[in-house]
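Regression report. Comparing outputs from two consecutive submissions.

Submission 1:
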Amino acid sequence: MKQRILIVGAGFGGMWSALSAARLLDLHGHTDTEVAVLAPQAELRIRPRFYEPNVHNMAAPLDALFDAVGVTFIKGLAERIDVAGKQVDYRDEHGNSATLNYDRLVLASGSKVARPRLEGIEHAFDVDAIEEAVRLEQHIKSLDKLPESSARNTVVVAGGGFTGIETATEMPARLREVLGENADVQVIVVDRGSEIGAALGEGPRELIAEASSELGVQWRLNSTVASVDAEGVTLADGQRIDARTVIWTAGVRASSLTEQVPAERDAQGRLHVDRNLQVIGQDDVFATGDVAYAAVDEDGNYALMTCQHAIALGRSAGNNVAASLLGVEPIAYSQPKYVTCLDLGAWGALFTEGWDRQVKFLRDEGKQIKTQINTQWIYPPAANRAEALAAADPLIPVVA
């Protein structure tokens, strides 16, 4: 009977895990192990781009790619992990319950925006999932059908981190495309930080402030949202902002499936893993992407919930889970090079290097790099067996 490597999730971490596992098995001429991916869709959803318009186009099909490398795709939603029994219960595309056994498990079920239990939070949009980002886009396109008002022309973005900044700085152009070039639009970022762009560090901070000023994006600092309704938000200090569009970007949490694995988790719900991405205390379970709390170097830095880290984490997890079945040496995950490329709308973009985020390129130069990242570098390889397996080498550096 064939052994099975089961990968839960088809995001960046899951897709690259599948390709990398298939690569190592292929290198060893091993045909007695099935690499299977369990996910709701056989597509890579390009989540880092969901702040942009035309979101419905931002999913890359994976069927042909998986077929080319011999990966089995199983359409369904994982619901229960039984580590002791080495099986995963899931609901298939018809809503029926089913079970998959595994010899090794790679948990790559991703993360979600952490919506707090606030009054009226259901009125807030987000750009976390493709369905929600499409709903936001449809809402923005419908604004011109409403009577003109300050609330109609105002967008509140809750959270001034990476996603919040990219969403907010893109928004003035998106609003004016719908409401007219001369429309008096307002985009307001509500952030608990004391400085604009504080979450991005000292290097980029002044440039984020400059871009915000140039684009007309306002910041309400030292502030939090207390409640949301269909007409706007009320802040914790009682201040009212009328807005027909509220977008929640504050906070991300790992998939709740991590709670079913008996192991230590960090504050965001990520499973502690060793340098081979094996869950500490679990011989047969690996974690990757946004569900893995993984050291990237020897200096105390840990992977962030980013596409950049998920790609390399996936390649490493897939290689090492296959290595554990083959009885060959794993390749320890290491990703000491860290960059960011922050889109700042019509102002341009900001490219930084290092954990201290030293600015290297900005405005048009930065935008060119961001465009390459968003349209080329983060997409799946072609459905060509040799090319796809070569691209899954865990020793390939990632800059995205």
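Submission 2:
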Amino acid sequence: MNIQSTSKKLFVLDTNVLMHDPASIFRFQEHNLFIPMVVLEELDHAKKGLSDVSRNVRQVSRFLDELIQDADQQTINDGLPLSLIEHGPAGNNIEQPGRLFFQTRQLKHLLPDDLPGQIADNSILSIVLALTKEYPEVNVILVSKDINMRIKAAALQINAEDYHNDQTIEDIDLLYSGSMALEADFWEEHGSKMESWQENNQTFYRIHGPHVADWYPNQFLYIDDESGFEAIVKSCDGETAVLQLALDYRNKHHNIWGINAKNREQNFALNALLDPNVDFVTLLGAAGTGKTLLALAAGLTLTLERKAYIEIIMTRETMPVGEDIGFLPGSEEEKMAPWMGALMDNLELLGSRSGSTDWEQGASHNVMMNRVKIRSLNFMRGRTFLNRYLIIDEAQNLTPKQMKTLITRAGPGTKIICIGNLSQIDTPYLTATSSGLTYVVDRFKGWENSAHITLKRGERSRLADYASDNL
């Protein structure tokens, strides 16, 4: 290997990085990469199957095969320029000076006696130690998604880092919340140039001022005083924005399928869910904030009362909290039923509010179930949903790639609702900053046909609220 002692860093990639992001070899800019032979062996063992991991491994193999085509032994020893691939993962030409090195000879370095070299992780650590010793002027860094791997590396005084390129934002506290409190003197500063008018029984304001540039379409604004001002940003252009007064669904006369909003954020959520011009809604919130109930109540209203959609489709990632219960018999809908307890609980609640007698409640439940379909994520690829109201539950467990696959299923007239809790992620190697739900919240915040709101107050019960805050 001809690894030059330049200012460039040499990143040694662990297998899980390539499994997690097959395009990771293009994410290190001008720095050099090194792939140990044991990593290629692990990739080979994981290439078979229909899981996302297996698909990612096969994509990595295709990238590496394209890089190594027509390369002789000398070229491999000198490092393969990553610019050899004409079209990268995003379809753009890649022009990077970084090179990719494969392990072409045995690299030995003594490990502690309790770290046998034949274990894959320990073999990678041994290779990193050997590279550090052989090239003292090069900054050799191990990149791994495995926390224990990084801990062992730190114990051996090896530089190790997590793979950060998959993170949408650096700190989850910086994630767009969908609502913003205005200053108490907002009207004093912006009222002089304000225009107001009525249209279709709605009140609109045209606002001019310096703060308008920081607003996003369909962002919810409010003034936390006795005035109770709540508005939605319908459009914003430079220093001019059009606001629409939000409807008050806390009023009993504006109930949605028998329920009312219990706080400001729930009211904002219902405004977004019922807006025919909003095609994509994301709802974040802790357990008990009403995400599923609001999404389902709005869906039933739009489907059964307003006839805006043909049916409601609900799906979710089937990640168990504890031990997997194993094979589930029956059809697709019957297999998904155990995962849809939240749907059934909320349908039962909404059905109980649809009639006063047992017969009326039973009839309402049957009507609702005829319009609510349960579908598995496993069979979504290739489908197109027309005039459907699609609810993706537990969306925090989806990767950005899975989220893209689902959202691109939407055909004309379809509305997609993504709901989840970023503090309850069960998928390995996913964090709050790299979740697909975080990804879409950040990427869609500037689109005029999408809306997002973070629900803050729990409304399930005083017991659930106390448990959420203190356990």
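Expected: both submissions complete independently.
Actual: both completed, but the second showed a warning that disappeared on reload.
Relevant detail on submission 2: The first helix runs from residue 15 to 20.
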